[in-house]
Amino acid sequence: MRxxxxxxxxxxxxxxxxxxxxxxxxxxxxxxNWFTVTSNTNNWxxxxxxxxxxxxxxxxxxxxxxSPDGVVWSSQTSGDTHHLYGIANSNNGSSTIxxxxxxxxxxxxxxxxxxxxxxxGTARRMGNAYDLYGxxxxxxxxxxxxxxxxxxxxxxxxxxxxxxxxTINQLTGxxxxxxIxxxxxYxxxxxxSPDxxxxxxxxxxxxxxxLTGxxxxxxxxxxEGLNGTTLISLDNGVTWAPITLGISDDLFGxxxxxxxxxxxxGFNGExxxxxxSYDYGVSWNxxxxxxxxxxxxxxxxxNPPNVVDAFVVVGGFGTILINAESLPSxxxxxxxxxxxxxxxxxxxxxxxxxxxxxxxxAFHFKESPLFNRSISITLAGGYDITYDEPNTxxxxxxxxxxxxxxxxxxxxxxIQ
Length: 416
Prior knowledge:
Blueprint: H1 2-19, E1 34-37, E2 45-51, E3 54-59, E4 64-67, E5 74-76, E6 84-89, E7 98-102, E8 107-110, E9 118-119, E10 124-125, E11 128-129, E12 132-138, E13 141-146, E14 151-154, E15 161-163, E16 171-177, E17 180-185, E18 190-193, E19 201-203, E20 211-217, E21 220-225, E22 230-233, E23 241-242, E24 250-257, E25 260-266, E26 273-277, E27 285-287, E28 295-303, E29 307-315, E30 320-323, E31 333-336, E32 340-342, H2 345-351, E33 357-361, E34 364-365, E35 370-371, E36 376-383, E37 395-397, E38 402-403, E39 407-411, E40 413-415
Parallel strand pairs: 33-36, 34-37, 35-38, 36-39, 37-40
Antiparallel strand pairs: 1-30, 2-3, 3-4, 4-5, 6-7, 7-8, 8-9, 10-11, 12-13, 13-14, 14-15, 16-17, 17-18, 18-19, 20-21, 21-22, 22-23, 24-25, 25-26, 26-27, 28-29, 29-30, 31-32, 31-33
């Protein structure tokens, strides 16, 4: 009982203190809006990152996709068939290094924005290669974590040094912030390192649930895990306070951007779980993702004019979601001449005039448009971010398209 009272007091205290310094977010509801983006693969995605103006996501069987905006994605050849579980980048402008890690100590490297990849040094310890589940970058060093307490460090991805973690528990996530690395894993494991991942100190989490992800933002570390487990730390990972979410969903990824923490997951409860926190991880809001599949990774990108405060989420069966804050520059549907942008086909049709063309970028829509006005329009899909012609792909609509009035010419639209 004393422990419960202590936690309540601590939570209330930090909540009200932080609210005094919380930046005003005039778009507090924009994270209610998520669009499913066409990935053209059913392979599972496990991780995603953003660096040097590019989103890069990795997944099963060596799958790698890149995107400059989170909307239009290109498949890249990884040269590897191992499952890739984690990806990070050095974010050093034109010299940015992307490193992906995965099964059997796999590391692969890209020096040109994720387009071409070469094998990095295999992370091995005592002659054995361990599965690697997470990787991050900070202060000139990449840190990768994995099975049996495995921790490796590297400055370039070509050579890796095994470090002593002090645990045999599986480590699943790692991050860097405020001059410190923090790794998390099974059985509530939390480790901190102030010296570029060389020496590690075990911290008391107070829980036995597995932790799967950790991130840093605005003075706060947030760790997420199984059965909705959420912990926050305000003192560089030394002490941790539990946050009750009231859900049983497993959480697999967490990030910070635009004064917001966003966590994703699924599996035990509703799949496609998205949670957001505007108050330093103290209180969380459950958002609708619109997908039935588990969500594994999340990244935040800010790169005007292509990307404006966009969160990209990846997960099961090739799922990629993007939030609506990246709009209106990349709203998925527009009416051509005069130009107007919309979030759905139905909204665009409702604002169209006769002889208009409704153009859609390569999105996958879950809606059933009803075209019932006495107008003649063209509905065209498969455009890229610049709406260049000719169309090179298709827009899919999961639902029905009903035309009860007027005339509609359909181009590059697939109804599923």
